[in-house]
Amino acid sequence: MKIRANHLTILRIILLPLPYFLIYGDIKAKVTALACFALLGLTDYFDGLMARHDGSTPLGRLLDPVADKIFISVTLIPLVDLGILPLWIVWPIFLREFMVTEFRTFCTTSRKQLRVTELAKIKTTLQMIGAGLIFMTHIFPDKTILIVFLSGALLATLSMAAVLYWRNHHLSTRVQKALGLFAFGLAVGLALSPPQIIITYGLVMLGITLISGSQYLITGLPECLRQGLPALGRLVASLILPLLSLALMPSAPKELSVLVVIIAALEFGSQGLDMWAVQEGKVDISWIKRHIIIPVALLSLLLGWMFYGFNSAVPAFLWTTTGLCICYTMANIRIYWKASYNN
User: Fold this and answer.
1) First CA to last CA across the chain, in angstroms?
2) In the chain, how many domains are there?
3) Domain contains 97
């Protein structure tokens, strides 16, 4: 059987829990987690190459952006949970990701296209590399491994750039940006202390993420406002559960941080399926989230807070939200499966 891009994408999603749990282990487990994340990140590059060579499929167009966002969830949320990266850097990144996906749905409704910008592509790569460099700095605080890695990456990119320039007499934008990225990372690694390096890399990730999001905001927000209160309600509904779960994570027991990752991953998947339903004119069940799931989840938080205190309310909310998100995602998958089978 020929390996296709979708196989790599699905493999990436299936294997992501492995490095997630290794992150919480000893130093050997952490190094293994870093290696796993690097390998899984490379599959994103290779499945893109394969998709361009063999042609993309509807499933691939659905899965690939979802897989990228799940990857970011599995890498960034543990960094917050372990105290490596502050929540105020990561939270806006997730805000941007959920908002942009919903803006795409609004534009689809009015038959407009919200194209993926070049900056957005850089953003995804930067998030993956940035998370890896931050984790590497945490594991090896003496900076030696970080500097050796970035020096090697810069040297390899320079060598590739020289060959490409010799052959084509010009450098592609991507190669130029890769050179700039590794040069900047190396300069930061040489000049700053490990805590400063982590914050700097995090701020760069945040800055690029927000700047790339602003381009979508200019198109998507007016479309959302034009569609009125239902669209605004849908937008708010897409943000409440994952962002509230992430905000409450510092108050939850450490072992429940995995629920925050699951909630974020399921919400990204559900958003993708909701957008597919709108694009294809299939059954859109997003009203269930607005009218049932969110009220029930918030009610569990409120009642738990009133009767058992805040510390008990947060776990109840996370467990309730996880269960509801699983049910909602399974319902969406069933709709997608039936539609694909009938076609």
Assistant:
1) 23
2) 1
3) no
Domain annotation covers residue 47: no
DSSP assignments along 236-300, one per residue: HHHHHHHHHHHHHGGGS-GGGHHHHHHHHHHHHHHHHHHHHHHHHT----HHHIIIIIHHHHHHH
How does pLDDT run across 112-143, given as a tens digit for each residue?
Answer: 666 767 777 788 888 888 899 999 999 998 88
CA dist 34 → 19, 31, 74, 183, 281 (Å): 7, 5, 12, 21, 41
Prediction pTM value? 0.90
d(CA 339, CA 343): 6
For residue 3, report the phi and psi dihedrals to the nearest 5 degrees: -80, 130
Average pLDDT over residues 56-78: 83
C-alpha–C-alpha distance, residues 133 and 119, integer Å: 20
Residue 231 domain-assigned?
no
Which tokens belong to 173? 């934008």
Domain carrying residue 145: 111-226
In a domain, residue 1? The reply is no
Place of tokens 């009133």: 306
